[in-house]
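Morning run. Coffee first, then this:
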Amino acid sequence: MLSDGVTPSSLSPLTLAFVGDGVYGLMVREHLACEANRPVGTLHKASVDLVRAEAQSAAMERLLPLLSEAEEAVFRRGRNAHTSRNSPEYHRATGLEALFGYLYLDGQRDRLRELFREAMAALEE
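And here it is:
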């Protein structure tokens, strides 16, 4: 439970995606920083490549078969949310971000890291 009695499941999918965007972006930066010591410009470009909607959508394809029913429901809520963009990739990316936001706010950090490792593996293949 979050402050003021708020639970992650009571938040809108776009609020979860708002949090998940930050969580996913930070995890990407940590991943890249731990891979190798590189110039900041190189790190930034690699980060942008990994967090763009097309990359998140591709990662989500790898993650879908690994999700529990509850996780898949959070993903679907995020994917189906009304956003300013109308592409399948953007909607899947929003679903991924909602899932990451939910897991983070729910305190499921081990599960979050497990799914993130799978996402990176999918994007590095």
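The helical segments are 13-35, 40-51, 53-63, 69-80, 88-105, 109-124. Good start to the day.
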